[in-house]
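During the reporting period, we have paired protein sequences with C-alpha cells. One record among many follows, to show the layout:
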Amino acid sequence: MATAEPERELIRRIAPFALPATALAFAIGALVAGVDAGWSAAIGIAVVSLNFVAHGFSTAWAASISPVLLYAVGLSGFVIRLGVVLVIIALLNTTDWFSVVAFIAAVVPSTILLLGAEMKILSGRMQADLWSFPDAGAHGMHR
C-alpha cells in the first residue's frame, strides 16, 4: 500500500464487501429468527460499514491538516460514532420489529472481521509511516 492516505486505501479495499456482508447477515438472521431479525442484522452491518467509512474519511482529513487534529479526531470521533450507534439502537428499539440480539449478533463479528482485515492490510507498517503532514516542516516538525 503506497499511498499517502492509508484510510482511503482501506475504504477502497474493504468497502466492496459491505453489500455482500449485509445480504449475508439478512439471510442468516432471517433463517435463524425470521425476517425482522434479518433486517436487524442487515442494519447492524450497514451501521458498522458506515462507521468504518466515517472513521476513514475523518481520519484522512485530519491527517492532512496536523498531528494534533488527527489525535483530536481519532479520540473524539470514536466517542461520537459510538454515541451515534447507541442512538440508532435506542431509536430502532422503539419499533416492534427490531431485534437488538440480531443487531448485536451481526455487529460484533463484523467489527472483529473488519479490524482483522485492517490489521492484515496495514501489517508490517509503522503507523507514523502511513501519514504525511504537508506543512509539518514549516513548524519545525520533521517526518
